[in-house]
Amino acid sequence: MLVQISSGQGPAECELAVAKLFEALTHEYSDMELVSSHRGRYTKRGCFASMTFSTAHDLSALEGTMLWICRSPFRPHHRRKNWYVDVSVISEREDTGAFGEGDDLSSSIRIETFHCGGKGGQNVNKVETGVRIVHVPTGLVASSTEERSQYQNRRKAMARLRAMLTQREIDARNQQTSKAWGKHTRIVRGDPVRIYEGMDFKRKR
After folding, report:
1. Torsion angles phi and psi, residue 175, rounded to 5
2. Residue 82: what are its φ and ψ, rounded to 5°?
3. d(Cα 151, Cα 65) in Å, to the nearest integer?
4. Domain span(s) for CATH 3.30.160.20 in the chain
5. Which end of the chain is more exposed for a tag (fewer CB within 10 A), N or C?
6. What confidence category does residue 40 fall into, taking pLDDT thresholds of 50, 70 and 90?
């Protein structure tokens, strides 16, 4: 699953808490792999507006607000000691079946041929030169009837299908990123799921 830790619109202390929480969780779940990280509005070392990671563990129970109780390491005379960060589970995009130019699509497509009308000589209506390719996992359909030979139409239809799959992949990634940043701006200061204390980030609850 994909999990995002976010400081929302919080100050530098919240951005530091993001990094500290990520480090604390890596000690609990050894398979965590950082997917992306974003620096925040502040230039403090070790501070992040958000960090997204993947893990095979189900961390749904951690979704919500985390509280870090600590005097500000950046503003010693600041009265505030409670710093909040958000943990959100991001729905992973579905496998779109997109392939690169050299990948084999043969196991996931269905190829159909049909007679073409229009120009192309006397051979057009006698031989099935038109090609329609269906990508079974997604239902995407690409076809070509412009060329005189079935081979040429098949190549053109395949190129179109690859382009459609690539665009689908891009759209899915953009949608995933949009959802992640939508959650990035949301911090709910309710009953925290966990509470950590001090610069050593010891878990209190």
Report:
1. -65, -40
2. -100, 120
3. 58
4. 106-171
5. C
6. confident
Measured distance CA(164)–CA(184) in Å, rounded: 30
* Residue 15 DSSP SS3: helix
DSSP state of 151: H
Reported in sequence order, the residue ranges of 71-193 that DSSP labels E, i.e. its strands, are: 82-90, 109-114, 130-135, 140-144
Decide: 195 and 204 in contact? Cβ < 8 Å. Answer: yes
Q: State phi, psi for 22 to the nearest 5 degrees.
A: -60, -45
Radius of gyration of the chain (CA): 26
The rounded percent of the chain whose pLDDT value lies above 70 is: 78
pTM: 0.58
Start-end of CATH 3.30.70.1660 domains in the chain: 2-94+183-203
Return the CATH architecture of domain 106-171.
2-Layer Sandwich (3.30)
Q: What is the DSSP letter of 99?
A: -
d(CA 85, CA 38): 14
pLDDT at residue 38 is higher than 50: yes
Handedness of CA 196, 197, 198, 203 (dihedral sign): negative
Q: For 2-94+183-203, CATH number?
A: 3.30.70.1660
Q: Residue 12 has what pLDDT?
A: 93
Contact status, residue 151 vs residue 49, Cβ threshold 8 Å: no
